[in-house]
């Protein structure tokens, strides 16, 4: 199947021929649907906290934070193509929908208006205004969301990445240092570095802390081969194989290289303004405090099992009630130990108000257990899709992760993925149709074998910017 040149290209990608052949087999056979049992709901997989419990969790984290290594992990790769899709259609094809009307009628309400106004020619018509947003001018059509101006303040506007600096100071600082890690595309890294070099000293002075900023790019060894519609390798015009980035699930490799006690994960576009950030900060601390409590108890159970004096009944109760894992009728200490010895994530879930995104589900596992997972509609069989519609909550990507074992060593997160939860889509290259393959999503299949706890959080903690008009919502004004 592969020529000598192919083998050399595969090796340069950090892949093996066997790995690429497995990818091609996935195209041929497809991925199995997730064995969802039911949607998680309040009292059945989604924890709704009372005020006293929430306050205690926040206090636990605040008291422990100074002695912990804490990192805020922000996936920030890729250009903001979808955010400006409608604008491109208007400029390139003349298609004008309600979104363009909304944009132009409210243009002076956008935080980027002063920057835009400065680059507009005199007497610019509507198309020239829109063109200056996505093309020569602001050039947002080729920039990542992190470098787009989101919010206006009296002292000056802030780009999305700056809001993560402000957030990091509020809940992710430990010992006077806020560590923030951004995953970026190679072509955008210089832009992030230039902006942060300018802005970090400003926020360090404002908050009296030091920032430790780091970057990583998606590894080429996580790329997947593209195939033709008949599942044979897709070849470019020069005869070379085509490899494509395998989606955000590939970032489990980047996350795996973060050594910290507590890792917060939040998307680059899910930020709000200073005036409305209170709930976000409070609930980040609450989720982290819950994580620390669960981790401490899991470690205690593991040590008791190792010492041979464990109270199995109380361990089973902890696993069922607190770690939200339903055990089979027959189980042994080995199964209990394998459940306890896993990475833990506490995930904020918001009430379902019609936003797109995955949701919390109970899933049946091969070992006879049932556990909680975040599932996307593409992972669910058509016959089970009504379960998705019955979900009371959905996933805003609000995660706090514990990736250390009881002995302090770090889990190898690659051991806790479910490789059978990938996704196949139709794409094109050079005008030719192809099939592409994505790895299991970062908070879906890439974390499928973690211990997962879902917590109800207020909708005020979720303010994503999927299209540019979202910046007109109250959370961003």
What's the gist of this structure?
This protein has helices spanning 4-12, 17-29, 51-64, 85-93, 98-105, 113-119, 126-134, 160-171, 189-207, 252-256, 278-307, 312-321, 333-340, 385-389; strands spanning 36-39, 41-42, 45-47, 70-75, 149-151, 158-159, 173-174, 177-183, 210-216, 224-225, 243-244, 262-266, 344-351, 359-364, 370-375, 393-394, 398-402, 423-429, 432-438, 451-456. It is α/β, with parallel strands linked by helices.
What does the model show?
- The protein is α/β, with parallel strands linked by helices and 477 residues long.
- The chain is 33% helix and 19% strand.
- It has 14 helices and 20 strands.
- It has helices at 4-12, 17-29, 51-64, 85-93, 98-105, 113-119, 126-134, 160-171, 189-207, 252-256, 278-307, 312-321, 333-340, 385-389, and strands spanning 36-39, 41-42, 45-47, 70-75, 149-151, 158-159, 173-174, 177-183, 210-216, 224-225, 243-244, 262-266, 344-351, 359-364, 370-375, 393-394, 398-402, 423-429, 432-438, 451-456.
- Strands 2, 3, 4, 7, 8, 9, 12, 13, 16, 17 and 20 form an 11-stranded mixed sheet that branches. The protein has a 3-stranded antiparallel sheet with strand order 1-14-15, with no helix packed on it.
- The protein is globular and about 80 Å long.
- The relative contact order is 0.17.
Q: Percent helix among the residues?
A: 25-40%
Q: What fraction of the residues are assigned to beta strands by DSSP? A: 15-25%
Q: Structural class, from helix and strand content? A: alpha/beta
In this structure, how is the largest beta sheet organized? 11 strands, mixed
Q: Give the overall shape.
A: globular
Q: Give the termini distance in whole angstroms.
A: 56 Å
Number of helices: 14
């Amino acid at each position: 199947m592969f020529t000598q040149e192919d083998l050399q290209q595969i090796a340069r990608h950090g892949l093996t021929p066997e790995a690429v052949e497995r990818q091609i087999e996935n195209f041929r056979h497809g991925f199995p649907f997730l064995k969802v049992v039911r949607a998680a709901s309040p009292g059945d997989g989604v924890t709704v906290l009372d005020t006293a419990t929430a306050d205690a969790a926040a206090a636990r984290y605040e008291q422990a934070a100074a002695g912990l290594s804490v990192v805020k992990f922000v996936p920030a790769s890729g250009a903001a193509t979808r955010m400006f899709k409608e604008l491109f259609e208007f400029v390139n094809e003349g298609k004008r929908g309600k979104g363009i009307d909304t944009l132009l009628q409210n243009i002076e309400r956008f935080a980027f208006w002063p920057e835009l106004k400065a680059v507009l020619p005199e007497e610019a018509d509507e198309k020239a205004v829109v063109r200056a947003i996505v093309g020569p001018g602001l050039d947002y059509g080729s920039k990542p969301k992190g470098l787009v101006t989101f919010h206006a303040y009296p002292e000056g506007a802030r780009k999305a990445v700056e809001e993560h600096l402000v957030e990091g100071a509020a809940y992710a600082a430990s010992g006077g240092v806020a560590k923030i890690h951004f995953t970026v595309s190679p072509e955008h890294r210089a832009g992030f570095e230039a902006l942060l070099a300018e802005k970090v000293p400003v926020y360090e002075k404002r908050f009296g802390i030091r920032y430790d900023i780091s970057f990583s790019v998606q590894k080429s060894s996580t790329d997947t081969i593209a195939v033709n519609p008949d599942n044979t390798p897709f070849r470019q015009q020069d005869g070379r194989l085509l490899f494509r980035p395998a989606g955000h699930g590939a970032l489990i490799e980047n996350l795996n290289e973060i050594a910290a006690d507590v890792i917060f994960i939040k998307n680059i576009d899910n930020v709000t303004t200073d005036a409305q950030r209170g709930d976000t900060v409070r609930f980040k601390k609450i989720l982290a405090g819950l994580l620390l409590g669960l981790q401490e108890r899991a470690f205690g159970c593991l040590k008791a099992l190792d010492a041979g004096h464990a109270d199995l009944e109380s361990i089973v109760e902890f696993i069922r009630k607190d770690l939200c894992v339903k055990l089979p009728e027959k189980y042994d200490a080995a199964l209990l130990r394998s459940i306890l010895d896993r990475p833990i994530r506490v995930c904020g879930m918001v009430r379902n108000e019609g936003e797109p995104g995955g949701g919390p589900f109970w899933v049946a596992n091969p070992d006879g257990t049932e556990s909680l997972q975040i599932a996307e509609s593409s992972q669910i069989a058509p016959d089970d899709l009504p379960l998705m519609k019955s979900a009371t909550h959905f996933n805003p990507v609000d995660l706090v992760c514990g990736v250390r074992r009881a002995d302090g060593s770090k889990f190898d997160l690659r051991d806790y993925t479910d490789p059978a939860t990938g996704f196949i889509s139709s794409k094109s290259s050079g005008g030719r149709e192809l099939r592409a393959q994505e790895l299991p999503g970062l908070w879906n299949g890439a974390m499928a074998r973690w211990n997962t706890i879902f917590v109800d959080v207020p909708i005020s903690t979720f303010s994503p910017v999927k299209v540019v008009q979202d910046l007109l919502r109250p959370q961003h004004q």
